[in-house]
TrEMBL record:
Residues 196-397 form the Tail specific protease domain. It comes from the Bacteria. SUPFAM superfamilies: ClpP/crotonase. It holds the Pfam family Peptidase_S41. InterPro entries: ClpP/crotonase-like_dom_sf, Tail-specific_protease. This is Tail specific protease domain-containing protein. GO terms for biological process: proteolysis.
Length: 422
């Protein structure tokens, strides 16, 4: 598909089918990206990578991480990571994590990206592309993928300019349980995309988790995965025995059943009609019938289904003292777990506000040749009624501003160990 047709269809989708249009339309500014691609076409340097960059910048400007635009892997394109992450505060920008780029160390100060100071980049960027106006919540990964050079000052005072390398995508970290001084237990469930893996982790460490005097649950860098993976963790956040329905609380949503949304959902479901598993086939038939019946009805208020029967009991387990560590990169299902914990009131929330991704649901996928565009078609009633979490996240009980010291020291964990419940 030609880029102009792709953009026209994408922007039409945003206006008519995207659940967040009413809330986000003031951020809709396609002109810079239409101009970017038009100039590239005129200069005969149009490429799939340029389209990927332009649309992703547009999505970033809308500030909804439920919007995504991806290019399929091919011989000419491989999704990649820079092998490190950065974070900015009033002190400056620093490398706060290293996964594969061993020329860098946590704590290195970033002086320039492509010879330009980070502060100047922020000042000059059109249509805020970093996801936030707060330095410590800025999202730099996409910008770094477009950069070629990074100038840093190492801990020994030496300055160095590096040509950035492309590494394979970082794999999600595995979950773990760690015994800390005084019998405190640290639980990091890992990426919540595998319910069985989370359940195995809990089962393997059940005696330790149930018998410890203090439990620290770390969700600071958790991208979420699926709601079913939350179930093994709920006993340690529930303040009493409760049903899944009681714990998940308000599931009211408004879904935009446009003809286009329903057609796209049916198209996505059709391959499952011939799945080997008969239950999958039956579910696909049921959902296709649902979207066929709802096609063209527009906005409909309904209740989002739970991942298990609402009356399923969740028994309260674990110690009286539970601390939940949160930060900007806690999102989606992990953020939902924080929301449940906040509502239950048993766990003490420590750290920084979560990402703020819970207001939009029901992702729809659209294929444009080698591209895939994903957008949500539902919005929570909490958001519609003015008390959603979009862009602001869920605030902790103890808000601790980020500083560069956290690049080399786990200050939040130390603070959690020192916290008094009395």
């Amino acid at each position: 598909m030609e880029s102009n047709k792709l953009l026209n269809d994408l922007f039409l989708t945003m206006r008519n089918d995207y659940a967040g249009w009413t809330a986000k339309q003031a951020r809709h500014n396609p002109s810079p990206f239409v101009t970017m691609l038009g100039q590239a076409y005129y200069d005969r340097r149009m490429s799939s990578l340029l389209v990927l960059q332009a649309v992703n910048q547009y999505c970033a400007g809308m500030r909804d991480r439920n919007l995504s635009f991806a290019l399929a892997e091919s011989e000419s394109y491989h999704p990649f990571s820079r092998g490190f992450t950065v974070r900015r505060s009033l002190e400056g920008m620093f490398v706060d994590g290293v996964t594969q780029e061993l020329r860098l160390q946590p704590g290195d100060q970033v002086l320039a990206i492509n010879r330009t100071a980070p502060e100047r980049i922020v000042k000059n960027l059109p249509n805020p592309l970093l996801g936030s106006d707060e330095p410590e919540r800025e999202q730099w990964n996409g910008y770094l993928k477009m950069a070629k050079h990074l100038t840093v000052r190492h801990s020994d005072g030496q300055e160095e300019t590096l040509e950035l390398a492309a590494y394979p995508l970082d794999r999600p970290a595995a979950g773990f349980v760690q015994l800390l001084p005084g019998g405190t237990v640290l639980l990091n469930p890992g990426c919540l995309d595998d319910p069985d893996a989370v359940q195995r982790l809990i089962d393997k460490n059940r005696q330790l988790l149930d018998g410890c005097p203090r439990l620290i649950l770390d969700l600071r860098r958790n991208p979420g995965g699926c709601e079913e993976a939350l179930l093994p963790l709920l006993p340690y956040l529930a303040h009493r025995d409760a049903t899944i329905g009681e714990l998940f609380g308000d599931r009211r949503i408004r879904t935009n059943y446009t003809k286009m949304n329903c057609s796209r959902m049916i198209h996505t479901l059709r391959p499952y009609l011939t799945a080997a598993d008969s239950e999958v086939q039956a579910m696909a038939r049921e959902l296709i019938a649902h979207y066929t019946a709802m096609s063209g009805q527009g906005w409909v208020e309904e209740t989002e289904e739970l991942c298990a029967p609402a009356q399923t009991m969740i028994p309260r387990r674990g110690p009286e003292e539970v601390i939940l560590l949160t930060d900007t990169w806690c999102e989606k299902e992990a953020e939902l777990l924080v929301q449940i914990a906040h509502k239950e009131g048993r766990a003490f929330l420590l750290g920084r506000p979560t990402m703020g991704t819970l207001d939009y649901r029901t992702p729809v996928q659209v294929r444009y040749d080698e591209f895939t565009f994903t957008y949500p078609m539902s919005r929570t009633m909490a958001s519609c009624e003015g008390h959603g979490v979009d862009e602001i996240g869920i605030s902790p009980d103890d808000l601790v501003p980020w500083t560069s010291l956290e690049c080399t020291q786990d200050l939040l964990l130390v603070r959690a160990m020192q916290h008094s419940f009395s």
